[in-house]
Design goal:
By secondary structure, the protein is an alpha/beta fold.
């Protein structure tokens, strides 16, 4: 599955520094706005200790983890919805991603200019929100304009859709994001073709200084309070710490470095996991001597759909799935031992895949 999270925020909040640490793609990071003109794309490994467990048991030739693409998008400024700065390019890039990582500056540093002159996480968030809402409002109003002509002819379907769009319009005009509007599946379908920006799920990455990475600060507290009704996570990261971790080669070195700061894992690992969960994704595994691999699917998918991410032929010609649970594999050590112990289930087309399943598909084309 091709999945993308867009890293967004005002200029000079630490987006590109964070992105470099995520992907080692080395996007230019500089103390001026718009140093990232074209979106940089990095393919990021999803941390999953189960993959290492399987690898130790199977000893494959290669191990392939699940991945997410992170896109570092040019900094947004007030007025972007009207084309200010790199507004139109920025908004077009956001439209392409599945979820948004909104980096918000929660640190003070006189050497790094704040585009608005002072640190204010709530104001920074509102600037981004407002620009996205205005662009969504423009999209909704254009569709309303088209439907009005049809509705005047008495078309019942057009009238119904028009009422739904008016609901979205009122919500956006009140300064709220579309993802917070309670709608039915039918109502959501009415705006699907608009690819609304504020429908996309979001994680707030509070970029803090090193000294408060375990405790947070008043700006983080203020940010959390401001988003408490959004059903969105706020994850603290320190871009400078993550940059230093990214330069370390050995896992033991990284762990020792984290321990010095009193951390169990990096902020980026938390951010990656949260992104995976945000998109309602789970992982299943295939395991053999050639490779052990993690596959990304949507939660609730049935076995044929899961098989389809390997190859469309697997879904078309699906016969059955052989499924082993990881705890059984750990205990019995081999696939054959699991089979002999009755721990390999044979599942059909209606089987809903569980996170962590080890699967082998039988198909016929």
């Amino acid at each position: 599955m091709g999945l993308q999270c867009g890293i967004v925020g005002l200029p000079n909040v630490g987006k590109s520094t964070l992105f470099n640490a995520l992907s080692n793609a080395k996007a230019e990071a500089a103390n001026f706005p718009f140093c990232t003109i074209e979106p940089n794309v990095g393919v990021i490994t999803v941390p999953d200790e189960r993959l290492q467990i399987l690898s130790d048991l199977v000893e494959p030739q290669k191990v392939l983890p699940a991945v997410i693409e992170f896109v570092d998008i040019a900094g947004l400024v007030e007025g972007a919805s009207k084309g200010e700065g790199l507004g139109n390019k920025f908004l077009a890039n956001i439209r392409e991603v599945d979820a948004i990582i909104h980096v918000i500056r929660c640190f003070n540093d006189d050497n790094i200019v704040h585009v608005a002159g002072k640190v204010d996480p709530v104001k920074d968030k509102e600037v981004i929100d407002t620009e996205l809402q205005l662009k969504d409002l423009e999209s909704v109003e254009k569709k309303i304009g088209r439907l009005l002509k049809i509705a005047k002819t008495g078309d019942a379907a057009a009238k119904k859709e028009l009422a739904i769009l008016e609901k979205y319009k009122g919500h956006l005009e009140s300064g709220k994001n579309a993802r917070n509007l309670e709608v039915t599946e039918e109502e959501a379908e009415a705006v699907r073709d608009l690819h609304l920006l504020t429908v996309k799920p979001v994680i707030y990455a509070a970029n803090v200084e090193e000294s408060v990475i375990t405790t947070g600060n008043e700006w983080v507290d203020i940010l959390k309070e401001s988003v408490k009704d959004e059903d969105a996570q706020v994850i603290m990261v320190c871009a400078s710490i993550e940059s230093q971790i990214a330069e370390l080669e050995e896992a033991e070195e990284k762990q020792m470095f984290l321990e010095e700061y009193g951390l169990k894992e990096s902020g980026l690992d938390r951010l990656i996991r949260a992104s995976y969960e945000l998109l309602d994704l789970i992982t299943y595994f295939t395991a053999g001597k050639t490779e052990v691999r993690a596959w990304t699917i949507k939660k609730g998918w049935k076995a044929p759909q899961a098989a389809g991410v390997i190859h469309t032929d697997f879904e078309k010609g699906f016969i059955k799935a052989e499924v082993i649970k990881l705890p059984d594999y750990q205990e019995l050590k081999t696939e054959q031992a699991c089979k002999e112990a009755g721990k390999m289930a044979i599942e059909g087309k209606e089987y809903v895949v569980s996170d962590g399943d080890i699967m082998h598909f039988r198909f016929n084309v």
